Amino acid sequence: MMFSMEMLPGIKACVFDAYGTLFDFATATAACRDELGDKMASLSAVWRDKQLQYTWLRTLQGEHADFWQVTGDALDYALEALEISRPGLRSKLLDLYLKLGTFPEVTGVLRRLKAAGMKTAILSNGTPHMLKAAVDHAGIAGLFDEVLSVEEVGVFKTHPKVYQLAVDRLGVGRESISFQSSNAWDAHAASAFGMRVVWCNRYGQRRERLPGMPDREVRTLGSLPEILGLQSMRV
């Protein structure tokens, strides 16, 4: 897919994935650089990969556990796989996961959307506690109409019930929602559900071969206001 700034017409609400899209999950391991040394990047990657795998596998098994447990289980796997054993490190990393940094453009983009009267929401695998902690730490709570957790439907993305939750809570038709995610699998699932989708391909991923197709592909969320036709709304 080519990067495109062509406008998406008729959008009434913007819904964002949380981790990797608004919040940089790598900031947790980066804050432990001294303890992790040259294993820092590997731990971040294995932790994230296993975290996502566990959500998919638990959904297939019908064995739901909330994202906080999944995050801890994935970290335990990653620490063992990389043979990292330091007293207190697990607790420190999990505490840092509640205080992740946002990507640089996030706050400015959200302010522009709200100034233009756009409805905004987070739709995430994260638990309500995790999402509240992240949003409060970033100081962006007032920039969302809704912060939605999959715990309301008891199943992880990419189940259609998750995307329907945003439709129901925002009171906006799926075709009038622009969904933003850095995860290609999430972007495809939202598109297959019927949302318009902006894939924020921060990590230079290859496109997936899955049902659905993102409407736009961008490197950061910085171009989102222009894609939605909000060029004149600058805050």
Helices and strands in order:
Blueprint: E1 13-16, E2 23-24, H1 26-30, H2 33-36, H3 40-61, H4 67-81, H5 89-97, E3 101-102, H6 106-115, E4 119-124, H7 128-138, E5 146-149, H8 160-170, E6 177-181, H9 184-193, E7 196-200, E8 216-218, H10 224-227
Parallel strand pairs: 1-4, 1-6, 4-5, 6-7, 7-8
Antiparallel strand pairs: 2-3
Helix pairs in contact: 3-4
Content of β-strand: 5-15%
Total DSSP E strands: 8
How many domains? The number is 2
Order of helices and strands: EEHHHHHEHEHEHEHEEH
> Which stretches are low in confidence, meaning pLDDT under 50 for 5 or more residues running?
none
The first-level CATH class name of the largest domain: Alpha Beta
CATH-defined fold name of the largest domain = Rossmann fold
Mean pLDDT: 95
The main sheet comes to: 6 strands, parallel
Q: Which class of secondary structure composition applies to the elements?
A: alpha/beta
Distance between the termini: 31 Å
Count the DSSP helices: 10
Shape: globular
Can you identify the CATH superfamily of the largest domain?
HAD superfamily/HAD-like
What kind of oligomer do you see? single chain
Note down, in words, how this protein is organized:
With 235 residues, the chain is α/β, with parallel strands linked by helices. It folds into 2 domains: 13-24 and 100-227, HAD superfamily/HAD-like (Rossmann fold, 3-Layer(aba) Sandwich), CATH 3.40.50; 26-97, DNA polymerase, domain 1 (Orthogonal Bundle). The chain is 43% helix and 13% strand. It is built from 10 helices and 8 strands. It has helices at residues 26-30, 33-36, 40-61, 67-81, 89-97, 106-115, 128-138, 160-170, 184-193, 224-227; strands at 13-16, 23-24, 101-102, 119-124, 146-149, 177-181, 196-200, 216-218. Strands 5-4-1-6-7-8 form a 6-stranded parallel sheet, sandwiched between helices. It has a two-stranded antiparallel ribbon with strand order 2-3. Strand 4 (119-124), helix 7 and strand 5 form a beta-alpha-beta unit. Helix 3 (40-61) crosses helix 4 (67-81). The longest helix has 22 residues, at 40-61. The two termini are 31 Å apart.
